[in-house]
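User: quick one
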Amino acid sequence: MNFFDLAYEYRSFFFSGLRYTLLLAVLGVCFGFVLGIIVSLLRMSKWRVLRFIASAWVEFLRGTPMLVQLFLIHYGLPEFGLEFSPIQSGAITLTINSSAYLAEIFRAGIQGVDRGQVEAARSLGMRQGMTMRYIVLPQALKNVLPAIGNEFITIIKESSIVSMIGVADLLFQARTITTITYEGLSPLVVIAVMYFVLTFTLSKLLGMVERRLNTDDRH
Amino acid sequence: MIAINGLQKHFGKLEILKGIDLEIKQGEVVVVIGPSGSGKSTFLRCLNLLEVPTGGSITFEGQSITDKKHDINVTREKMGMVFQQFNLFPHKSVLENIMLAPVKVKKVASAEAERIAMDLLRTVGLEDKRDAYPAQLSGGQKQRIAIARALAMQPHVMLFDEPTSALDPEMVGEVLEVMKKLAEQGMTMVIVTHEMGFAREVGDRILFMDGGYIIEQGTPAEVFGHPRHARTKDFLSKVL
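Assistant: Done. Structure below.
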């Protein structure tokens, strides 16, 4: 069976896999984004305990393989009575893992905003939270947008590890098709193309957003 | 209006302010001059607690703002500040820069805030720049917007931290003009500057600072005309 026939015949497998891949990537990115902001703020907290917890979080998640983290959550936590479905475990792993990388990106972004910006906002009577929200974060996020984009692309690709615990994502479906058709190569080539189209489109979109933001305020 | 007693500021072992006593009256224009590193800017930044003093006290309109229980944010609403580097918000338009604090901090309705902002833009002569972004403005224009932004909170006192030091020479005049207008309207102002001509013309009182102390103070005629202290004479002979 040639490549295109296979892609067409098993299209429902591929699209179903694509749905799970996208679902997990979107969940991981969205929750990871929010959690990452929180972790980055904790890392810059006044309180040493919070700083320590946030640093430990980042270091542990960056210093251990994501596959090991996935297995710990999916097979390890049930020993403590915490059981998750494969999709939940996958979403949690992608979230906490991206939160660690994004937290570092945000921290760099926040620290890169000129101190004078904070002083100007505070001198106008804006409180710390307000200053963060209206002045520092918008500038920080704009500055680190390319880095955030890279992290999103990484998450899409890395989400393929969830096939190891039985989530029917793209990689899982490719292997299913192999067991049906005995075709080893073609299903993998199809999903490789699909992954590439996803990440390439995203990278082009982010490039457009970046240019839009830059025309608003050039320094 | 502002009473300062025994104000001290140390950065680690480095003593910047070694004990400042000063009383600033309503409507007074106080100009602080002195060599670099004399503590002028630090002194000004202590007034709204951008630098937290290590000793002494500051009372503003009868309230001790150096008291740990005092909420400094409330006082900062009444103290406008203008910075050497302008510090406009680059991601916001001119109008948004001016309206942000009134709307978010004072909860002024946005139509009312816009009216105030447009009035101020006319005062500083930049009403046509309302939709521009800071990056599209010249230094002098930026600083005039920064003054308008501080005034939008309707402060009782304005603090100026070397407002013309980062400007090209041809733009200094337009900023000083705005400040002069403000002084004529009776605004209480504390100004750190190297513009001696302006200090002489607009100041009600000149403070000469050196080495963390106020060495000498008086009317412009006294300080510029008949400086008593050797260090004041020395400084003035170099800058005039």
